[in-house]
Write a structure and sequence with these properties.
By secondary structure, this protein is an alpha/beta fold. It is built from eleven helices and eleven strands. The two termini are 61 Å apart. The relative contact order is 0.14.
């Protein structure tokens, strides 16, 4: 309906008490200020000033507009400052895989909350493919996912390098190849889980495949099911430290590239924002502090 510059001109005339002084304050020609005021009155459909010679008196409509104009200009200034502000604040929606959330994030998220109390952190878990799509469609601000991340619309930063190990019940003989796994049941997350895909690929390259896949919703349950002999699983070694009955498991190394996974922080290209940058610094700091 009208521009902010119209409101600035209007308030300048009100504060200066006339067109001439307002023109001097705005460093504009008197005729330009007069035209802007008349155009504003035409847009609103009501007169704003009572003109008596060179003096102007605010009419009731002008008094109403004066209050709104000041508030609108104040809001515009606040919005401008907020977009230029490099201090983390507001809501940060972070996506993560279940293993990363359970093992890696408690310490850095606690530190992040302590350092940046004005940021409300919301945490979502899912498989990497889902998290990538949520970031691309702006339903998440950032996410921690396992390689590969090839979409050119995303920027990323390596955060954690995970060692992946094969686990079986404690009495299981040493596993060197898929032929050493008589029980062809694997315990894993949904098909989008990168660790499940690695395990299935390891079996496939030996021309074998699991007879059964038991889909489980948490690492704690996977560890418990493996411990009672239901099957084998591929998990980050860091997860084992959270399991109180560790002695009921046997751990078996896998060859590269199955034994390593890189977790990256991803966000939309050219839009990290101060909260994402702050989170990346905290994640890297806690990584260096970890034993």
């Amino acid at each position: 309906m009208f521009e902010l510059s119209d409101l600035r001109t209007f308030l300048a005339v009100v504060q200066a008490g006339g067109i001439n002084r307002a023109a001097q304050t705005l460093h504009r020609a008197q005729s330009s200020v007069t035209v802007r005021i008349r155009q504003l009155e035409e847009k609103l459909g009501v007169p704003l000033f009572l003109r008596e010679g060179r003096s102007l008196q605010l009419l009731p409509a002008g008094k109403v507009l004066m209050d709104y104009a000041q508030r609108l200009l104040d809001l515009a200034e606040q919005a401008s400052q907020a977009t230029r502000d490099d201090q983390p604040k507001g809501v940060l929606r972070l996506g993560t895989m279940e293993s990363t959330a359970a093992v890696r994030l408690p310490q850095p998220l606690g530190l992040f909350h302590e350092m940046y109390p004005e940021v409300a952190l919301e945490l979502y878990s899912g498989d990497p493919r889902e998290l990538v799509q949520r970031v691309l469609h702006a339903r998440l601000d950032a996410a921690l996912v396992t390689d590969p991340v090839s979409d050119k619309r995303l920027d990323s930063m390596p955060i954690y390098e995970e060692e992946l190990v094969l686990i079986a019940e404690a009495r299981h003989p040493r596993i060197r190849s898929p032929k050493d796994v008589p029980v062809k049941t694997i315990l894993a997350f949904h098909p989008g889980c990168p660790h499940r895909q690695r395990l299935e690929d390891w079996l496939r390259r030996a021309r074998t495949k699991p007879q059964r896949v038991v889909e489980v919703g948490s690492y704690h349950l996977i560890l418990g099911c493996v411990a009672v002999g239901m099957g084998i699983a591929l998990v980050p070694r860091s997860v084992l430290g959270t399991y109180v009955e560790r002695e009921r498991l046997s751990v078996h190394a896998l060859p590269p590239p199955y034994s390593r996974a890189l977790t990256r922080l991803i966000w939309r290209k050219n839009a990290p924002g101060p909260s994402i940058l702050a989170l990346s610094r905290v994640l890297l700091k806690c990584r260096t502090m970890s034993p």
